[in-house]
Structure formats: C-alpha cells, structure tokens
Specification:
CATH architecture of the largest domain: 3-Layer(aba) Sandwich
Shape: globular
Number of strands: 26
Structural class: alpha+beta
Strand content: 15-25%
CATH class of the largest domain: Alpha Beta
CATH topology of the largest domain: Alkaline Phosphatase, subunit A
CATH superfamily of the largest domain: Alkaline Phosphatase, subunit A
Oligomer: single chain
Length: 676
C-alpha cells in the first residue's frame, strides 16, 4: 500500500476514475426506487405511471450534474453555511425542474414539498445503496473533485511524493490494537497485516491534550501551555485552546518558520494551522470561514453530499438518543452526561465535520499539495461521553477507518504519489468524574479550604466545541463575542479543569505564589488537596526547595530527585517527574497544579470536568498515543518523548520524501537512516 521510494518513480500520471456502467445502472435503479418512496411519503408530491420514476430520476441526475458545480464555483461569503443552503435549494429545484419538464409524470405542489422529498430521496437512497453494496463507490465523487481541482489551477503531476497526516483525536495505542483485533479498524489492520505498516508509541507532554500536542506537532514548540485553559495572572486573562482568538495568539507565539505544513501544505480540522497555506475548519485561522473559502468547493459540487449529510446527521442524533437510553436502562457506569446540545454536537463531529474534512483531504490530493494534516475528532467526542471502548465509541472509530479507506483508494488518482501516516495527539483514560464520586467539584473543595475569597470554577468547552460551535459562528457572520469569563482580573481565585488536571490560581498577586506563601495565607488549602482520596499529586513551588510534588503520605523534591515518605508520582510512570519539572518552568504555571488519582489495577482516574473519558494529565492510556506509519519511514533509535519530537520526526519524513535534486528535477528519494 505504501508508495515506493522516490528513486523508483518515473513520470507519475494520475489515473482517471472510470464510470462503470453496471454501477450507473444500479445507482439509477436506487434513485428510481427512492423517488417512488418520496412520492408515497411526502404530501404534495405525486407520481403518475410505472415508468415515471425512471424519468424523474434521470432529470434529477442531470440537474445535479449541472447546477451544484456551478453553485460551488461561486465565491460566496461565509462559504460553509451559504454553500449548504444553496445546495439544498438546488436539490429542491431538481424536483421542480422534473415537475416542469414532466408535468404529466410528477407533481410537486410547493418548494417545501420538493425540499422534503429531496431529503427522503437521499435517506432511501442511502439505505438501498448499503443493501446493494454501492455506498462506497467514489468514482463519480473523485471525477468531480478532479474537475474542480483542474479548474482551480491544480499543480502539474509530479513523482515527488506528498505526505498525508491523519490524526485521530484521543485514540490510545491499546485501544487501536483492540479495534484492529475486533474489527473496528479493518483498513488500518490491513495496512499492518499486508502493507508493511508499523505502530509506534510516543509520550505526550504534560498537559496531554490537543492544544499542547498540536502546538508541538504542527509548530515545533508547546512551551508555556500548561493545560487546555490557563490564566495569565499579569493580565488577568484566561487563555483557552477552544477560542479562535486565543488559538491565533498561541500560533503567533509559537510559529517560527518551521511549521510542519509550510511551503504549500494544507490544514484540515485542526486547532492550529502549522503555517499552512490552505485551511478549512482551523480554529487559529477561523477568519477563513468568513470568506469565499475554496476548500469547500469539491464537497458542494456534488449535490447529493448535502442531503446525504443532513440525513446522516439526523441518524446520528437518533443513535445517540438510543445509546443514552440503553446505557441508563442498563445502569452502565461510569456514565457521562449526554443531554442538552450534546447529541447535536456529536452528530456535527461524526458526520458534517468528518465529511467536510475528508473532502478537504481528497481535494488536496487532486491538487497535488505536498503535505496535509487533518484531524478527525469524532472518536474523542464520543468517548468523552460514552466511554473508552463502548459500542457507539468503536462505531465512531469504524466510520473513521472507513474514511481512511476512501483516502487510500483515491491515491492513484492524485497529482502525485502519497504516503499516509495516521497518528493520535494523546489517548484517553476512563473513570467516574471527581464530582460524580464526591458530590462536589474541585472548585468547591478549594473554596471551602480557603481562609477567604470566592472561587470561580471554569471547566468544559473542548476542541470539538471549538470546531463545531465557532465554525458556525464565523460561517454565519456572527462576530466572536467577548466572553466575560475571559477576563478574570476581578476574580479572587480561579479553578480550572482540564481533564484530570486541575489548575488553581490565587489572583491576589500577579505572580505565582510559593508553597510557603500558600501555607501562610491559606493554611488549610494544601492539606485539604493533598489528603483528598481522589487527588494523586500536587505541584507547587517552594521558595526553599524549588518544585515539589506533594501526595497524601509523601513528597517528591523534583530539583534533586529526593523522596520523603511515599512517592506521589510512583504510579504515573518514569517520566512523570520530568514532565512536572518542565511544567514548573512555565511562566504561567498555576499556583497549585492538581493531578487526579490513578488506580493501575482498575486503570482509572477521574476528571475535574464532567467527562467520563478524559485526558490532560497523567495516568493510564491518555499518555499512550501512537504513530501508524509505512515501515520504510524510519523511526529514531530511542523513545519519542514530547510533541516537539513528533514534529521533528514528521518533518524529517517530509524533508526526505520531498528532497528534490534541482539539476535533475526529480525526487531524491528517502534515505533509510535515522531522521536528522
């Protein structure tokens, strides 16, 4: 499956997808049956004659072959939302055109009836395509994407290979192995079994979350990112990796000209852009969603995509409701909060965002872009609320694996040969939340342990909400509102949750308070935290001893690796002390950094926000992300520790693949050596 080394290629020419007559015939029959069903179900739509549906299906196909590409080519502002609305109109217009062209065959009373009928046709077609085994037929879609790419100035074919990085947000290596074994990741399992792929584990930084990991992987640095959200006391500002303005600031601080995607790369569905030239659904560059972003053109050029996505969206919501009811009836524990807007958020991530990103990657391949980094967050989102390896979580992973199969099959039609690398930014660990276990939150514990002062507790709001919520805000033209909680300068104490990592900031000084100062001003605080059964360790800075990790029955003096009593970091792995020392050196480390307990026997901890699967701290599979790569892309000799090390590894692969002999104008190929 892996592309051969550059020196073995000559004169790469993309294939053209063939339209197979048998597939076309089956597709026509499917649409015909769907038209019959719509006429029987939708009020205001009537069909006359046995052969009428065949004619209507032909008219719909003709209209959808002509109008959606024309609409998609328009440079509309707020391309995401305006494109969805425009193509919905086109789908309804197709039936109205059929009505006008064949008045004796089909009757459509009103535009609303036509729109509803288009959705019913899409739903019935999906069911029948699955039954007929034609739901994975991408030939037509790829022909459309190739045509769009040519019209937008795709690069000339080249034998210099490109590289595609597909990130599965939140998937741990042990879970991936189980999924491969049990049939939830058949595409990736085949790559390992038949195509010479290998799996490598890497160790994320503290904090093990997407903001820190993507800063390191895409930009080469994640310094001074202590958690998913943190406070900069000198300005009284709360920074969160879910806010577009904050992500833009994070990228400004860390970009140094070595971005993984610089020089023609594309960012799809990420928090940060990696200095890419092309972006869609990238939080740090959310301003791109306000304009006529051409990254969506290929998706909208196929009129069936919008109605199909809306039907699958509704189906995903139904699946979530069903799964939630089943979990409650069976008293499955731990059980997460699954009400409110969560079903809509899950459907957005598992259908709409997933499909838009997939089409973005396919478009990049047809353009011949040299590097693509795409993040798929549906597994992470479902696991947060359903559990690490529950049935609906693994189904979300299976559907992602299916999309990776589409991307693999499209390589032969791309403008250059492509290598595919799959990786995760962190894993997840499971367990009932701190509040579920105790009936109160970390903020409540801190507040009642203070000598005085009110606590502002802030948690919730992850990268999925950033992708789904902020994208909609920008795409609909709503100005980003100034969140009052972003300014915490008037708060006395701020407690933040970032998975099973808690951050406590006492705002009485615009600097970090020492352990001695904390003990003097709030003598009950440190004892209350370190003695709590669901707290594993505290990181504080002592004026006398430097950074100290405190536990219920011992202390680890990190500066000189000295332990008194029981080591609070003993069950968190050999790298725990190193990670805490690094975080202690951050300018915006909190006054008290709190890590939850971890039980290695049960392999569980607890989050300080309401997520039953979590990441952000230490303990369990959250610290076991993976890299799935072709075996001829070499690994370093030692362990891969930290996101910046992953950046250097991935960058070395890109440099080696795309090193060009300027005299010959051909790829120099990949040296089978350790990355430089």
């Amino acid at each position: 499956m892996s592309a051969p080394a550059g020196g073995e290629r000559s004169g790469w020419q993309p294939s053209r997808p063939k339209l197979r007559p048998a597939r076309l015939a089956v597709s026509w029959l499917v649409t015909t049956a769907a038209v019959y069903a719509a006429a029987a179900i939708v009020p205001g739509v009537s069909l006359v004659g046995v052969g009428g549906a065949f004619l209507v299906a032909a008219v719909i196909a003709a209209v959808n072959a002509i109008l959606p590409p024309l609409v998609a080519a328009l440079r509309l502002p707020f391309a995401l939302i305006s494109g969805f609305l425009a193509i919905l109109v086109v789908d309804a217009v197709a039936l109205r055109v059929a009505h006008e062209a064949l008045p004796d065959v089909i009757g459509v009373d009103a535009f609303g009836s036509a729109l509803l009928a288009a959705l019913v046709i899409a739903a019935v077609s999906l069911v029948l395509q699955v039954a007929a085994g034609t739901n994975d037929d991408d030939e037509y879609a790829l022909r459309v994407i190739q045509r769009v790419a040519r019209r937008q100035g795709a690069a000339a074919p080249t034998d210099v290979p490109g590289i595609i990085f597909l990130e599965i947000d939140g998937l741990a290596l042990p879970v991936l192995r189980h999924a491969m074994r049990d049939g939830s990741a058949p595409t990736m399992a085949r790559w390992v079994a038949e195509d010479g792929y290998r799996m490598a584990e890497w160790e994320p930084d503290l904090s093990s979350q997407t903001g820190a990991s993507q800063a390191g992987i895409l930009l080469g640095s994640n310094e001074d990112i202590p958690a998913f959200r943190w406070v900069e006391k000198e300005t009284g500002r709360l920074i969160a990796c879910s806010a577009p303005d904050d992500c833009a600031e994070i990228e400004r601080r860390h970009a140094s000209g070595v971005g993984l995607l610089k020089d023609g790369g594309a960012s799809r569905g990420n928090l940060l852009s990696g200095e890419a030239d092309e972006v869609i659904l990238t939080v740090s560059r959310m301003d791109a969603e306000r304009g006529a972003n051409p990254g969506y053109r290929a998706f909208f050029a196929n009129g069936f995509n919008v109605t199909r996505a809306l039907v699958l969206f509704a189906w995903e919501v139904l699946l979530e409701w069903t799964a939630a009811i089943r979990a409650a009836r069976r008293d499955v524990r731990p059980r997460g909060h699954r009400g409110g807007i969560y079903p809509l958020l899950r459907a957005t991530m598992c259908v709409l965002v997933r499909d838009l990103i997939t089409y973005g990657v396919l478009t990049d391949m047809m353009f011949g872009r040299p590097a693509v980094y795409a993040t798929f967050s549906s597994y992470d989102e479902v696991a947060h609320h359903s559990g690490l390896e529950r049935a609906d979580t693994m189904e979300a992973l299976r559907k992602l694996d299916q999309q990776f199969g589409r991307i693999e099959r499209a390589r032969q039609f791309a403008r250059r040969p492509y290598e595919i690398v799959v990786l995760s930014d962190h894993g997840q660990t499971q367990g009932a939340t701190f509040k579920q276990r105790n009936g109160y939150g970390l903020d409540d514990l801190v507040e009642r342990s203070l000598s005085g002062g009110r606590v502002a507790g802030i948690a919730g709001g992850d990268e999925q909400r950033a992708m789904a919520g902020h994208a909609v805000e920008e795409a609909t033209g709503r100005a980003a509102s100034k969140r009052p909680k972003n300014d915490v300068s008037d708060r006395q104490v701020v407690v933040l949750g970032s998975g099973n990592l808690g951050l406590v900031y006492l705002m009485e000084q615009p600097r970090r308070l020492t352990l001695e100062e904390l003990s003097q001003r709030h003598p009950k605080l440190i004892p209350a935290l370190r003695e709590h059964p669901h707290v594993g360790w505290l990181l504080v800075r002592s004026a006398e001893h430097g950074p100290v990790a405190l536990g219920a029955d011992g202390a680890h003096y990190l500066a000189d690796s000295r332990v008194e009593g029981d080591d609070p970091l003993a069950c968190f792995g050999p790298g725990a002390a190193r990670h805490l020392v690094r975080t202690d050196g951050f300018a915006h480390a909190p006054d008290v950094l709190v890590g939850s307990f971890y039980d290695p026997e049960l392999d569980e901890g607890c989050a300080f926000e309401e997520l039953i699967c979590f990441h952000g701290g230490l303990g369990g599979p959250q610290t076991r992300p993976f890299i799935l790569h072709p075996e001829h892309l070499p690994l370093p000799a030692g362990p891969i520790v930290g996101a910046a090390a992953v950046h250097e590894l991935l960058s070395s692969w890109r440099r080696a693949l795309q090193r060009v002999d300027e005299a010959a104008g051909t790829s120099a190929g990949l040296a089978a050596t350790t990355p430089d």
